[in-house]
Amino acid sequence: MTTLRSVSLIGVPTDIGAGERGASMGPEALRVADLTKALRSHGVDVVDRGNLSGPPNPWLPPVDGYRHLSEVVAWNQVTHDAIYAELKAGRMPIMLGGDHCLGIGSVSAVARHCRDTGKKLRILWLDAHADFNTSKLTPSGNVHGMPVACLCGFGPQELIEIGGQVPAISPKWVRQIGIRSVDAGEKRFVHEQDLEVFDMRYIDEMGMRHTMELALATLDANTHLHVSFDVDFLDPSIAPGVGTTVPGGPTYREAHLCMEMIANTGYMGSLDIVELNPALDLQNRTAKVSVDLIESLFGKSTLMRK
Protein backbone atom coordinates (compact mmCIF):
# COMPACT_ATOMS: atom_id res chain seq x y z
CA MET A 1 0.00 0.00 0.00
CA THR A 2 1.23 3.48 -0.82
CA THR A 3 0.86 6.21 1.78
CA LEU A 4 -2.07 8.58 1.40
CA ARG A 5 -1.29 11.01 -1.27
CA SER A 6 -1.20 14.61 -2.29
CA VAL A 7 -4.15 15.23 -4.55
CA SER A 8 -4.83 18.05 -7.01
CA LEU A 9 -8.39 18.72 -8.15
CA ILE A 10 -8.64 20.05 -11.70
CA GLY A 11 -12.03 21.25 -12.92
CA VAL A 12 -12.71 20.93 -16.65
CA PRO A 13 -16.09 22.64 -17.11
CA THR A 14 -17.21 21.67 -20.59
CA ASP A 15 -19.89 19.56 -22.25
CA ILE A 16 -18.18 19.94 -25.64
CA GLY A 17 -18.26 16.20 -26.43
CA ALA A 18 -21.71 15.44 -25.02
CA GLY A 19 -25.15 15.11 -26.58
CA GLU A 20 -26.83 17.06 -23.77
CA ARG A 21 -25.85 20.36 -22.17
CA GLY A 22 -24.99 20.56 -18.46
CA ALA A 23 -21.89 18.43 -17.77
CA SER A 24 -19.98 21.73 -17.80
CA MET A 25 -21.48 22.33 -14.32
CA GLY A 26 -20.14 19.01 -12.99
CA PRO A 27 -16.97 20.35 -11.32
CA GLU A 28 -18.93 22.89 -9.28
CA ALA A 29 -21.52 20.29 -8.24
CA LEU A 30 -18.71 18.08 -6.87
CA ARG A 31 -17.29 21.04 -4.96
CA VAL A 32 -20.75 21.90 -3.57
CA ALA A 33 -20.99 18.26 -2.42
CA ASP A 34 -17.84 18.93 -0.35
CA LEU A 35 -15.34 16.74 -2.20
CA THR A 36 -12.33 18.58 -0.72
CA LYS A 37 -13.57 18.24 2.86
CA ALA A 38 -14.43 14.56 2.31
CA LEU A 39 -10.93 13.77 1.03
CA ARG A 40 -9.25 15.74 3.82
CA SER A 41 -11.22 13.71 6.36
CA HIS A 42 -9.16 10.70 5.15
CA GLY A 43 -5.85 12.47 5.70
CA VAL A 44 -5.38 13.39 2.05
CA ASP A 45 -3.52 16.61 1.22
CA VAL A 46 -5.88 18.36 -1.26
CA VAL A 47 -5.22 21.38 -3.44
CA ASP A 48 -8.03 22.63 -5.68
CA ARG A 49 -6.42 24.10 -8.81
CA GLY A 50 -9.71 25.65 -9.92
CA ASN A 51 -11.03 25.27 -13.45
CA LEU A 52 -9.28 25.07 -16.78
CA SER A 53 -10.66 27.22 -19.56
CA GLY A 54 -11.33 26.52 -23.20
CA PRO A 55 -13.67 27.40 -26.05
CA PRO A 56 -17.43 27.65 -25.49
CA ASN A 57 -19.78 24.96 -26.80
CA PRO A 58 -21.14 26.16 -30.18
CA TRP A 59 -23.79 23.38 -30.19
CA LEU A 60 -23.48 22.55 -33.88
CA PRO A 61 -24.24 19.41 -35.91
CA PRO A 62 -21.41 16.96 -36.73
CA VAL A 63 -18.92 17.60 -39.54
CA ASP A 64 -17.34 14.47 -41.09
CA GLY A 65 -18.57 12.34 -38.18
CA TYR A 66 -17.37 14.60 -35.35
CA ARG A 67 -19.14 17.32 -33.41
CA HIS A 68 -17.06 20.30 -32.32
CA LEU A 69 -13.74 18.66 -33.22
CA SER A 70 -11.50 21.74 -32.92
CA GLU A 71 -13.07 22.67 -29.56
CA VAL A 72 -12.73 19.06 -28.33
CA VAL A 73 -9.03 19.13 -29.28
CA ALA A 74 -8.50 22.45 -27.45
CA TRP A 75 -10.13 21.21 -24.23
CA ASN A 76 -8.24 17.90 -24.32
CA GLN A 77 -4.93 19.65 -24.91
CA VAL A 78 -5.31 21.88 -21.83
CA THR A 79 -6.50 18.84 -19.84
CA HIS A 80 -3.46 16.83 -20.94
CA ASP A 81 -1.09 19.64 -19.98
CA ALA A 82 -2.65 20.17 -16.54
CA ILE A 83 -2.78 16.45 -15.64
CA TYR A 84 0.76 15.85 -16.89
CA ALA A 85 2.10 18.78 -14.83
CA GLU A 86 0.55 17.38 -11.62
CA LEU A 87 1.95 13.88 -12.24
CA LYS A 88 5.36 15.36 -12.96
CA ALA A 89 5.19 17.24 -9.66
CA GLY A 90 4.49 13.95 -7.84
CA ARG A 91 0.83 14.74 -7.13
CA MET A 92 -2.25 12.66 -7.90
CA PRO A 93 -4.55 14.46 -10.35
CA ILE A 94 -8.31 14.14 -9.99
CA MET A 95 -10.05 15.52 -13.07
CA LEU A 96 -13.49 16.90 -12.34
CA GLY A 97 -15.34 16.76 -15.67
CA GLY A 98 -16.92 17.68 -17.91
CA ASP A 99 -17.96 15.02 -20.34
CA HIS A 100 -16.02 11.82 -21.05
CA CYS A 101 -14.32 13.07 -24.22
CA LEU A 102 -11.87 14.61 -21.70
CA GLY A 103 -10.59 11.11 -20.96
CA ILE A 104 -8.50 11.51 -24.11
CA GLY A 105 -6.45 14.34 -22.61
CA SER A 106 -6.38 12.85 -19.14
CA VAL A 107 -5.36 9.28 -20.02
CA SER A 108 -2.88 10.38 -22.69
CA ALA A 109 -1.13 12.49 -20.01
CA VAL A 110 -1.06 9.50 -17.64
CA ALA A 111 0.31 7.25 -20.41
CA ARG A 112 3.00 9.82 -21.16
CA HIS A 113 3.96 9.97 -17.48
CA CYS A 114 4.17 6.15 -17.41
CA ARG A 115 6.51 6.22 -20.42
CA ASP A 116 8.67 8.81 -18.62
CA THR A 117 8.87 6.78 -15.42
CA GLY A 118 8.99 3.26 -16.86
CA LYS A 119 5.72 2.25 -15.23
CA LYS A 120 3.08 -0.11 -16.55
CA LEU A 121 -0.42 1.31 -16.94
CA ARG A 122 -3.77 -0.25 -16.08
CA ILE A 123 -6.95 1.67 -16.87
CA LEU A 124 -10.28 0.90 -15.22
CA TRP A 125 -13.08 2.36 -17.34
CA LEU A 126 -16.20 2.41 -15.13
CA ASP A 127 -19.00 3.21 -17.56
CA ALA A 128 -22.36 2.15 -18.98
CA HIS A 129 -20.85 2.61 -22.46
CA ALA A 130 -17.77 1.20 -24.19
CA ASP A 131 -16.82 4.64 -25.62
CA PHE A 132 -15.22 2.86 -28.56
CA ASN A 133 -16.97 4.61 -31.44
CA THR A 134 -15.29 6.15 -34.47
CA SER A 135 -16.51 8.73 -36.98
CA LYS A 136 -17.64 5.84 -39.21
CA LEU A 137 -19.48 3.98 -36.42
CA THR A 138 -20.98 6.82 -34.37
CA PRO A 139 -24.70 7.45 -34.68
CA SER A 140 -24.33 10.96 -33.18
CA GLY A 141 -20.85 12.36 -33.79
CA ASN A 142 -20.53 13.10 -30.05
CA VAL A 143 -16.89 12.63 -29.11
CA HIS A 144 -17.75 11.50 -25.56
CA GLY A 145 -18.58 8.16 -27.21
CA MET A 146 -15.08 7.86 -28.69
CA PRO A 147 -12.34 8.39 -26.06
CA VAL A 148 -11.19 4.77 -25.68
CA ALA A 149 -11.00 4.35 -29.47
CA CYS A 150 -9.03 7.61 -29.78
CA LEU A 151 -6.61 6.55 -27.03
CA CYS A 152 -6.08 3.25 -28.89
CA GLY A 153 -5.20 5.21 -32.04
CA PHE A 154 -8.55 5.16 -33.87
CA GLY A 155 -9.59 8.74 -34.37
CA PRO A 156 -8.67 12.09 -35.92
CA GLN A 157 -4.96 12.92 -36.03
CA GLU A 158 -5.30 15.99 -33.78
CA LEU A 159 -6.87 13.92 -31.00
CA ILE A 160 -4.88 10.69 -31.15
CA GLU A 161 -1.47 12.44 -30.97
CA ILE A 162 -2.16 14.71 -27.96
CA GLY A 163 0.05 12.67 -25.60
CA GLY A 164 2.97 12.64 -28.04
CA GLN A 165 2.70 8.97 -29.03
CA VAL A 166 0.22 7.11 -31.25
CA PRO A 167 -1.46 5.06 -30.01
CA ALA A 168 -1.36 6.52 -26.50
CA ILE A 169 -2.36 3.17 -24.97
CA SER A 170 -2.84 -0.49 -25.87
CA PRO A 171 -6.36 -1.97 -25.59
CA LYS A 172 -4.70 -4.65 -23.40
CA TRP A 173 -4.27 -2.10 -20.61
CA VAL A 174 -8.00 -1.35 -20.34
CA ARG A 175 -10.60 -3.09 -18.20
CA GLN A 176 -14.14 -1.89 -18.84
CA ILE A 177 -16.63 -2.44 -16.02
CA GLY A 178 -20.41 -1.99 -15.90
CA ILE A 179 -20.95 -1.82 -19.67
CA ARG A 180 -24.56 -2.23 -20.79
CA SER A 181 -25.10 0.01 -23.82
CA VAL A 182 -22.99 -0.55 -26.95
CA ASP A 183 -23.84 0.34 -30.55
CA ALA A 184 -23.88 -2.60 -33.00
CA GLY A 185 -20.86 -1.53 -35.08
CA GLU A 186 -19.01 -0.49 -31.94
CA LYS A 187 -19.57 -3.97 -30.45
CA ARG A 188 -17.87 -5.62 -33.42
CA PHE A 189 -14.97 -3.19 -33.16
CA VAL A 190 -14.57 -3.87 -29.41
CA HIS A 191 -14.31 -7.61 -30.19
CA GLU A 192 -11.83 -7.01 -33.02
CA GLN A 193 -9.56 -5.00 -30.74
CA ASP A 194 -9.92 -7.55 -27.93
CA LEU A 195 -10.89 -5.09 -25.20
CA GLU A 196 -11.49 -6.74 -21.85
CA VAL A 197 -15.10 -5.94 -20.98
CA PHE A 198 -16.89 -6.92 -17.77
CA ASP A 199 -20.43 -6.05 -18.79
CA MET A 200 -23.44 -6.04 -16.48
CA ARG A 201 -24.36 -9.59 -17.43
CA TYR A 202 -20.91 -10.71 -16.29
CA ILE A 203 -21.33 -8.80 -13.01
CA ASP A 204 -24.83 -10.31 -12.55
CA GLU A 205 -23.49 -13.83 -13.10
CA MET A 206 -20.15 -13.66 -11.32
CA GLY A 207 -20.63 -10.84 -8.82
CA MET A 208 -18.70 -7.60 -8.35
CA ARG A 209 -16.02 -9.19 -6.15
CA HIS A 210 -14.96 -11.72 -8.80
CA THR A 211 -15.18 -9.05 -11.51
CA MET A 212 -12.85 -6.71 -9.62
CA GLU A 213 -10.44 -9.51 -8.70
CA LEU A 214 -9.97 -10.16 -12.43
CA ALA A 215 -9.88 -6.47 -13.38
CA LEU A 216 -7.18 -5.84 -10.78
CA ALA A 217 -5.22 -9.07 -11.36
CA THR A 218 -1.45 -8.90 -11.97
CA LEU A 219 -1.07 -5.34 -10.65
CA ASP A 220 2.20 -4.67 -8.88
CA ALA A 221 4.16 -1.79 -7.37
CA ASN A 222 5.37 -0.81 -10.83
CA THR A 223 1.81 -0.30 -12.14
CA HIS A 224 0.07 3.05 -12.31
CA LEU A 225 -3.67 2.45 -11.89
CA HIS A 226 -5.88 5.04 -13.57
CA VAL A 227 -9.60 5.09 -12.78
CA SER A 228 -11.94 6.75 -15.26
CA PHE A 229 -15.28 6.99 -13.46
CA ASP A 230 -18.23 7.93 -15.66
CA VAL A 231 -21.10 8.59 -13.28
CA ASP A 232 -23.49 6.81 -15.68
CA PHE A 233 -21.69 3.62 -14.56
CA LEU A 234 -24.09 3.71 -11.61
CA ASP A 235 -27.71 2.67 -11.77
CA PRO A 236 -29.88 5.75 -12.51
CA SER A 237 -31.96 5.01 -9.40
CA ILE A 238 -29.00 6.19 -7.30
CA ALA A 239 -27.39 8.55 -9.84
CA PRO A 240 -30.02 10.28 -12.00
CA GLY A 241 -27.84 13.30 -12.85
CA VAL A 242 -26.32 12.13 -16.14
CA GLY A 243 -27.22 12.83 -19.77
CA THR A 244 -27.06 9.19 -20.87
CA THR A 245 -28.84 7.14 -18.22
CA VAL A 246 -28.97 3.39 -18.83
CA PRO A 247 -31.01 1.30 -16.38
CA GLY A 248 -29.50 -1.79 -14.81
CA GLY A 249 -26.19 -0.49 -13.50
CA PRO A 250 -24.34 -1.44 -10.33
CA THR A 251 -26.19 -0.89 -7.07
CA TYR A 252 -24.94 1.39 -4.32
CA ARG A 253 -23.28 -1.51 -2.48
CA GLU A 254 -21.77 -3.04 -5.63
CA ALA A 255 -20.27 0.35 -6.53
CA HIS A 256 -18.78 0.73 -3.05
CA LEU A 257 -17.27 -2.75 -3.20
CA CYS A 258 -15.74 -1.87 -6.59
CA MET A 259 -14.17 1.31 -5.13
CA GLU A 260 -13.03 -0.36 -1.89
CA MET A 261 -11.25 -3.12 -3.83
CA ILE A 262 -9.48 -0.50 -5.97
CA ALA A 263 -8.44 1.32 -2.77
CA ASN A 264 -7.12 -1.92 -1.26
CA THR A 265 -4.54 -2.27 -4.04
CA GLY A 266 -2.89 1.02 -3.07
CA TYR A 267 -1.93 1.57 -6.71
CA MET A 268 -4.40 4.22 -7.86
CA GLY A 269 -2.40 7.12 -9.23
CA SER A 270 -5.00 9.23 -11.05
CA LEU A 271 -8.76 9.60 -11.34
CA ASP A 272 -11.35 11.09 -13.70
CA ILE A 273 -14.91 11.85 -12.58
CA VAL A 274 -16.99 12.65 -15.64
CA GLU A 275 -20.50 13.10 -17.08
CA LEU A 276 -22.06 14.45 -13.88
CA ASN A 277 -24.88 16.69 -15.11
CA PRO A 278 -26.42 18.77 -12.29
CA ALA A 279 -29.07 20.15 -14.68
CA LEU A 280 -30.61 16.66 -14.75
CA ASP A 281 -30.03 15.87 -11.07
CA LEU A 282 -32.26 15.97 -7.98
CA GLN A 283 -30.86 18.26 -5.26
CA ASN A 284 -27.25 17.39 -6.16
CA ARG A 285 -27.88 13.76 -5.22
CA THR A 286 -25.61 12.31 -7.91
CA ALA A 287 -22.70 14.54 -6.88
CA LYS A 288 -23.17 13.46 -3.24
CA VAL A 289 -23.19 9.76 -4.19
CA SER A 290 -20.09 10.35 -6.33
CA VAL A 291 -18.25 12.01 -3.43
CA ASP A 292 -19.29 9.12 -1.19
CA LEU A 293 -17.82 6.62 -3.67
CA ILE A 294 -14.64 8.65 -4.10
CA GLU A 295 -14.20 8.47 -0.31
CA SER A 296 -14.24 4.68 -0.68
CA LEU A 297 -11.48 5.00 -3.29
CA PHE A 298 -9.46 6.77 -0.59
CA GLY A 299 -9.94 4.19 2.12
CA LYS A 300 -13.36 4.77 3.66
CA SER A 301 -14.68 1.31 4.47
CA THR A 302 -17.55 -0.24 6.35
CA LEU A 303 -15.24 -3.15 7.21
CA MET A 304 -15.89 -4.22 10.79
CA ARG A 305 -13.89 -7.44 10.69
CA LYS A 306 -10.63 -7.53 12.65
Automatic annotation (TrEMBL):
Cofactor names: Mn(2+)
Primary enzyme class: hydrolase
Residues in the signal sequence: none
This protein's name: Arginase
Entry GO MF terms: arginase activity
Cofactor binding, note field: Binds 2 manganese ions per subunit.
Listed NCBIfam families: rocF_arginase
InterPro entries to which the protein is assigned, alphabetical: Arginase, Ureohydrolase, Ureohydrolase_dom_sf, Ureohydrolase_Mn_BS
Reactions performed catalytically: L-arginine + H2O = urea + L-ornithine
EC number: 3.5.3.1
Lineage, broadest ranks: Bacteria, Pseudomonadati, Pseudomonadota, Betaproteobacteria, Burkholderiales
Record organism: Roseateles albus
Pathway the protein acts in: Nitrogen metabolism; urea cycle; L-ornithine and urea from L-arginine: step 1/1
Gene: rocF
Entry's family note: Belongs to the arginase family.
This protein's UniProt keywords: Arginine metabolism, Hydrolase, Manganese, Metal-binding
Pfam families in alphabetical order: Arginase (PF00491)
Record-linked PANTHER family: ARGINASE
